[in-house]
Structure formats: C-alpha cells, structure tokens
Amino acid sequence: MRSFLFAFSVVLFTTGAWAQSEKAPQQVSSADVQALLARIEKLEERVTELEAKQATIRTSAAFTTAQSNPESAPSAPVTQAQQPKPAPMTNMAEEMQGMHTVLARAGEEYPNLKIRGFGDIDFGANSARGVNSGFQLGQFVLHFASALSPKVSYFAEVSLTATPGVYNVDLERTIIRYDWNDLAKISFGRYHTPVNYWNTAFHHGAWLQTTIARPDMIVVGSRFIPVHFIGAQSEGSIPSGPLGAGYNLGIGNGRSLNIARAGDSGDVNNNRAWLGNFYLRPPALRHFQIGGSVYRDEITFPSTTLLTDGQNFREWIASGHLIWNGETPEFYAEFANVHHRSELTGRTLDSQGGYVQIAYRLPFDAKKWKPYYRYDYLQVPANEPTLPDFVNVRKSTLGMRYDISDFAAFKAEYRNGRGNPLPQRSNAFALQTAFTF
Amino acid sequence: MIRRTRTLQLLLLTIVLLGFMFSGNAQSRSNDVAVVVNPAAPVSDLTLSQARRIFRGDQQYWNADLPIVLLVRNPPSRERDVILKQLYSMTEAEFKQYWIAKIFRAEATSGPKIVYSNSMAADLVKVIPGAIAFMAARDVDPGLKVVKIDGHLPGDPQYPLR
After folding, report:
1. d(Cα A162, Cα A326) in Å, to the nearest integer?
2. To probe the interface with A, which of B58, B87, B104 has the most A CB atoms within 10 Å?
3. For the stretch A397-408, what's the b/e string if a residue is b when 16 or more beta carbons lie within 10 angstroms of its beta carbon?
4. Taking the CB of the first residue and of the last residue of chain A, which one, N or C, has fewer CB atoms within 10 A?
5. Do A190 and A175 form a contact (C-beta atoms < 8 A)?
6. Distance CA A22, CA A12 (A)
7. What are the phi and psi torsion angles at B74 (to 5°)?
8. In Å, how far is B85's CA from the nearest CA of chain A?
C-alpha cells in the first residue's frame, strides 16, 4: 500500500512540476475580452456591409458591360481591373482571426479560479411538542474550482452553517486532482464519500436538489453512512462503448472517534478505510444511471465510552442506486446496508436505509412547477451500539418546487412520519428559497 | 382529349410535388450542423454516442497528452439549438444547470468556451489543439477537419445533426 501511495505522489508531483514549467500564456483581462468582442462584432458588421456593396458593384459592372457589348455579357461579366480592391476585407479578416486567437487564450491562463456560491433561507413548523417553528438561515456555501495546468485542477468547498450561538465554518471539500487521462484521474483531499449518489451530486447545493431536505440516510451529521472521506482516490471511465461505465476507488482515514465526522486530523485507529464505486451511465440514455458501492472501515470509539461489545467494530457498507435525473420524470432510488461486527464479541448487526423520490416538471405554461414525493426509510437494530438512541425513520414528503429563475427556486414541503430525531409521528411544514450565484 | 389533359395535370402535379420534396431535402442538407476539430485531434469519425459523451464533458481527453477543448455557440443561434436538442437533449436552462452541477461535483473546472460566431469558432478550432466545435456546414473553412457522425458527413441524407 505504501508503494502504491508513493507512486501516486510521484505521479502528482512530477506532473505538477511539469505543469508549472510550462510557459505561462499572456494574461487577458475580462475588460480586454469585452473590448475585443465589441470590436469583432463591428468588424463582422463591416464585412457584411462590404460584401453586400461588392455584390452590388459586380452586378452593376456586369450590367454596364452587358449593355455596352450584349454578346459578351454572359461570358465576361467583370474584368479583374474593374473589381473593387479586396485589401480592406482581407486585412479585417486577418485582424479578426488575430483577435479570436487572443480570445482563445482568455480561458487558458493558470490558475483560473472560478467561484460559485449556493445559499438557502428556510422556514419550518412542526406539530410535535417542544419543536419551535420559525425562520432559519440554511447553509451559505462557496465552491471553488481552478485549473492549475491543462491536467491539474483544484476544487474546494467551504460552508457556513447557522447553529445556536455560533456560525459553524467547515472545509467540506478540498481536492487536488491530476488527470492522467479519462481512465485515471488521481486525486488527494477531502471528498463527499461516493458511497451514496445524493452525497456526491447535491450535498451542499440546496438549489441543485429538487427537495428542501436531504434524504434521512445522508442528512447533515449523518452517523448512518460516512458523509466525508479523507484520503486519495482514482476515478474515471471504463471503456465499455454504449454502457458508459465509470468507477471510483479510494483509500483513506475512515471515520473519526465521533463517527459523524471524518478523520480530518489523522486516522484514529491506524486502519485505512477503502471504497469502490462502479456505475453505468449510457450516453444514449442521458438521464439514466445505475450503480453500486462498497465501503470498508474499522470504527473506534473513545476509551471513555463504555460499550458491551468493546470499542472497535468492523464496518462494511454496501449500497446501490437507480437514477433517472431528468425532469419528466425525475426518479431517484437508493439503498444501503450497513454491517457492523464487534471485534471483541464477534456480534454482528445490520442496518438498512434508503429512499425513493419521484418528481415531474409540469408541461407548457406550468413548466416552472415541479411537484415531488419522497419516502424515507431507516431501520437500525435497537441494540446497535454504534448508533445509540437512533430512531427508525418512516417518513413521507410531499412538495412543490417553483423555479422563479434559472438560478433561484422556491420550495414548499409537507412531511408526515416519525424518525430521527423525533420518536413520535408528527406533521411538519417547510418553506425554502434556494439559489446559486 | 379530356383524358390527355388529366394525364398532363397529374404529371404537372407530380413534378410540383417532387420539386417540393427535393427542395425540402436540399434545404435541410444546407442546414446541417458540422462538427469540426483541430487537425491535431486524432479523430475523423465519431458515433453519435461518442459525440454526446464529448459534448457533455464525460470524455475530456483525445489521448493522454491532448485534452478536449469544447467550443459552444452563444444563444440564440440555430446551431446551438440543434446541438442542445440532438447531443445534450436539454433546454437552455437545463444546459446551464447541467454545467453548474458538473463543476459542483468536481467533474470539470469550467464549462465549454463560448464562441460568438461561426467564423470565431473556425478561427479558434484552428489555433487550439484539441478543440472541437460545431458550425453551420456551409460556413466550414477548407482548413478545418470535419468529423463524420455515425459514418456520415454533412449533406448525407442520414446525417443526424440538422
């Protein structure tokens, strides 16, 4: 394993050095780009105008020649000397070509940092006793993407979450990636664990997801499956023709002593977690994806925690997803089985979780509206020591999304059911406006 | 006499109908959208599936040394409409959201480069190694490499991008 990691490192640093040694292209500011575009537009208008004039001159010259010598008209419409000089148009075409070349370099300067933000503001009310209703600031998320060279790129994601008394700032993702080719893109950093489709597709982008809340199996601070993963990954496509197969393979620290957290500062038990994810995304079926994942780790609890089954548990997670991410309809179904085995007693426990979500973008004048429904299911054994006080989930969510623009949406949701964290059945109503900027 | 007149009328009608059909075909062929690449790109024939994977950013390299650079026309343009329909199967809004989501998932650092005219697309394809673009077939320069789609060039009756 060490030699494998060493090879990863060598590849990354060698190519990084190579990328840095490339001659940096001339910088082109956005003001320059706008000025060039305006100039090109004028030149293209001028070319069209000149071409029209040239055609008129040719026609009138041919007409004049035909009048003076009707017999020769069809064979000799215009002599070379009679044609207008082409020089101005040629110069303009060359100038345009030059400017296009300059524009082409605009996106190739490195690093070319791009920032996108996601935000949401929420209102919630619940019929359960002891639960307050009111407005809530959701997550404010900044997403960074920067190409460092044609084959090296960096991604990061920072979230600010309102909690009682303080804003919680978290580095959700930080990933440096070297693209060997389409088959192998090797990266290091902190990821959304690709053991769950929703987790990688929407995790902190409330605007990206149809619903207000995430499925219960992958909520913020989820203990059911690991949300984050720190380590190294290789991802890419697998030559498979029309099947469009792809994969992720990863090795990392696994869960921390608090199993809702990843091992950011180190591996708590010196036992690496690893994962594999395989999926099919056929190009002919643009919205379709089917796949499965496995995740292996060892969970360690603090020595101060007294558990009858000891402090260490082997963890196996197997999951699958079936996705149609279109709009008419949209369909998501995911399922995961979490298997724990006590290293002290050998006792095994299995928990299951999943959801099914369906939505449909309405047609014609109502296309801004998208009604949806989701059913969440989580079943954890009562005596599961790694998930104490976990309340099983049986929940229905019925909602409507209204896209006020291409980049902002309103959502309204009614939820009925019981489950984590409320043990009793309750009715809840939620509103959200989510956007990207 | 009457019979001969009717035959002539029928013949004329047939000619007119055939004329409409052929002019329609010629019109649709002149509206073909050509996929062009930089001459350095090691490709001359793509299946429609491969073209979809490339324009959707699922295939990002021609080979280990040559990244694919996507050039896409700005809206509104007929060429863009054809590509959004045939290769992306998306509306304009879905196209924007698709690339935002793709960058969010760390699958790409940026969306396609935007070009503002067919001549700009042609100029950029010539100078950017690995560039791929689409343009009206009638605007293709002699210096560009036109890629066959499913074995057909623009103008062929079975050419899919029109």
Report:
1. 32
2. B104
3. bebbbebeeeee
4. N
5. yes
6. 16
7. -75, 155
8. 12
Spatial separation of the C-alpha atoms in residues A410 and A123, rounded to whole Å = 11
> Which residues of chain B lie closer than 8 angstroms to A37, CB-CB?
116
Contacts of B145 (CB under 8 A, 6+ apart): B36, B37, B38, B39, B41, B44
Q: What is the pLDDT of residue B12?
A: 63
Q: Give the pair of three-digit tokens for residue A177.
A: 């990636």
Q: What CA–CA distance (Å, rounded) separates A226 from A203? A: 13
Tokens of A191: 């990821």
User: At residue A296, what are phi and psi to the nearest 5 degrees?
Assistant: -130, 135
Q: Cβ contacts (< 8 Å) between B58 and chain A: which residues?
A: 237, 244, 281, 283
Q: How far does the CA of residue A182 sit from the closest CA of chain B (Å)?
A: 6
Angle between helices A87-105 and B118-127 (to 10 degrees): 60
Beta bridge partners of residue A126, listed in sequence order: A428
Chain A residues in contact with B129 (beta carbon < 8 A)? none
Please report the number of interchain residue pairs, chain A to chain B, with beta-carbon separation below 8 angstroms.
Answer: 101
Asked if A178 contacts A151 with a C-beta cutoff of 8 angstroms, the reply is: yes
| Angstroms from A155 CA to nearest CA on chain B | 6
pLDDT for residue A241? 87
Note whether A212 and A430 are within 8 A (CB): yes
- Cβ of A155 within 8 Å of Cβ of B109? The answer is yes
ipTM (interface predicted TM): 0.78
- Please give the model's pTM, rounded to 2 decimal places: 0.78
Contacts of A147 in chain B (CB under 8 A): 109-110
Of chain A, the end-to-end C-alpha distance in Å amounts to 42
Q: Which residues of B touch A102 (CB under 8 A)?
A: none
Instruction: For an interface test with B, give the residue of A15, A33, A114, A181 to mutate (most B CBs within 10 A).
Output: A181
Q: What is the pLDDT along chain A (437 residues), one digit of tens a residue?
A: 445 444 544 444 444 444 343 333 444 555 555 656 666 666 777 766 776 676 666 555 554 444 444 444 344 444 444 444 444 566 666 666 666 666 655 556 889 899 999 999 999 999 988 888 999 999 999 999 999 998 999 999 999 998 888 889 999 999 999 999 999 999 999 999 999 999 999 988 999 999 999 999 998 778 899 999 999 999 999 999 889 999 999 999 989 888 888 888 888 888 899 999 999 999 888 899 999 999 999 998 887 766 677 788 999 999 999 999 999 999 999 999 999 999 888 999 999 999 999 999 999 889 999 999 999 999 999 888 888 888 899 999 999 999 999 999 999 999 999 987 788 889 999 999 999 99
CA of B17 to nearest chain A CA: how many angstroms apart?
A: 32
CB pair distance less than 8 Å for B109 and A153? yes
Residues of A in contact with B50 (CB under 8 A): 283
